[in-house]
Design a protein that fits this description.
Number of domains: 2
Strand order of the largest sheet: 5-6-11-8-7
Number of helices: 10
Radius of gyration: 28 Å
Strand content: 15-25%
Order of helices and strands: HHHHEHHEHHEEEEHHEEEEE
Shape: elongated
Number of strands: 11
Oligomer: single chain
Length: 350
């Protein structure tokens, strides 16, 4: 093909439409990755920050490299491009081969997106924007036909709806992760499994221990050394069963003349509460039960409470003396010769 024929190939000089289409595609690729790590590896999607997000951005490019060429080869478009009526094909109207689409995608990732490397990505996006604004063919589009069906107003509405739906999907993933593996009436083993599930989800470690199938603390097999600031012991749970299923869960902590500071038992109470209440029928997708339970317990550190959620009644009575209270700990008072701490926690299925 002669150079002047290549220059006549249709091109789309709408930088913002192209950028938004690309953004939507990347959102979809990222959602596929988040769904995978959420339900296969049980990674807490809501807790991903900093370097996790950087890793996610690079994994998104890997998914893009695998999926986008296939979409272009099969459909001449991608979900984001389809919203704006964008199509990519050969000059004769035929579909790109998978190899041609792969080469184009790789050039887009490098020359257009800067491999998602911070700062360099912005530089490449800015240069691509300027070229497109000046009606210059982008390097990766020089041998292909890039067309747009129309620029009607409703395409913007579709895009906004798709963008909102992506947030709903993320929220649904986060909410689904708060539903424990066991629902309904619980045996002790199922309660323990739920408890350990939430402990891993919220990345809460208790002296490197977990609950076994009998509801007893067991040491994990680990060669790593963990330093603990708290001197608290893990509470031993007591269970009341009916026909083999749990109706009541409780524990009691009592210490006298303790020389060390005391951490709150909020985390143990939260995990136990979620393990029990999360199994009830009231706990569904998008349920606010976990949030309300966590708030009730965290807002009453070293204080008693009495509330009901998900068909479960939660009661905590705390009594202490000889300590002065900080935001996060009870510290022995130098003016007191004796210290005393008692905590009684219970859950009852109504």
């Amino acid at each position: 093909m002669m150079i002047n024929e290549i220059e006549k190939l249709p091109q789309v000089f709408h930088p913002w439409r192209r950028y938004l289409a690309r953004t939507m595609d990347c959102i979809i690729y990222n959602l596929l990755w988040l769904t995978f790590i959420a339900f296969i590896f049980h990674v807490n999607v809501a807790a991903r920050r900093g370097l996790d997000n950087v890793l996610d951005s690079f994994i998104t490019l890997v998914i893009m490299m695998g999926l986008e060429p296939l979409l272009l080869h099969l459909f001449k478009t991608t979900p984001g491009k389809a919203i704006f009526g964008l199509r990519i094909e050969n000059c004769d109207g035929s579909k790109l081969s998978y190899g041609e689409a792969l080469e184009r995608t790789w050039r887009v990732i490098g020359e257009g997106m800067g491999y998602n490397i911070p700062i360099y990505r912005l530089v490449r996006l800015w240069k691509s924007y300027n070229l497109c604004s000046e009606n210059e063919t982008l390097p990766w589009d020089e041998s292909i036909s890039y067309t747009i069906k129309d620029t009607k107003w409703y395409r913007g509405v579709f895009y906004v709806c798709a963008f909102v739906c992506s947030f709903v999907v993320v929220y649904a993933i986060i909410s689904a992760q708060l539903i424990p593996p066991n629902k309904g009436d619980l045996t002790i083993a199922e309660f323990a499994e739920n408890y350990n599930y939430y402990a891993k989800h919220f990345d809460m470690s208790f002296r490197d221990e977990y609950l076994d199938e009998n509801g007893k603390w067991k040491k994990k097999d680990s060669d790593s050394m963990v330093i603990y600031i708290s001197h608290n012991d893990n509470p031993e749970f007591d269970f009341i069963l009916k026909n083999g299923y749990i109706t009541d869960v409780s524990f009691e902590i009592e210490t006298k003349n303790n020389e060390y500071m005391l951490s709150p038992y909020d985390r143990q109470m939260i995990l136990a509460s979620l393990a029990f209440a999360g199994a009830q029928d009231e706990m569904k997708l998008f349920s606010k039960i976990p949030k309300r339970i966590i708030e009730q317990i965290e807002n009453n550190t070293f204080k008693g409470y009495h509330f009901a959620e998900g068909g479960i009644t939660f009661i905590c009575d705390i009594e202490h003396s000889g300590y002065y209270e900080t935001q996060s700990y009870l510290l022995p008072s130098d003016d007191e010769k004796e210290t005393y701490f008692n905590l009684k926690f219970s859950m009852n299925k109504q």
